[in-house]
Amino acid sequence: QVTLKESGPVLVKPTETLTLTCSVSGFSLSIARMGVSWIRQPPGKALEWLAHIFSNDEKSYSTSLKSRLTISKDTSKSQVVLTMTNMDPVDTATYYCARFDDSYGAGYFDYWGQGTLVTVSS
Amino acid sequence: DIQMTQSPSSLSASVGDRVTITCRASQSISSNLNWYQQKPGKAPKLLIYAASSLQSGVPSRFSGSGSGTDFTLTISSLQPEDIATYYCQQIYSTLWTFGQGTKVEVK
Question: Quick check: B35 contacting A, CB < 8 Å?
Answer without folding.
Answer: no
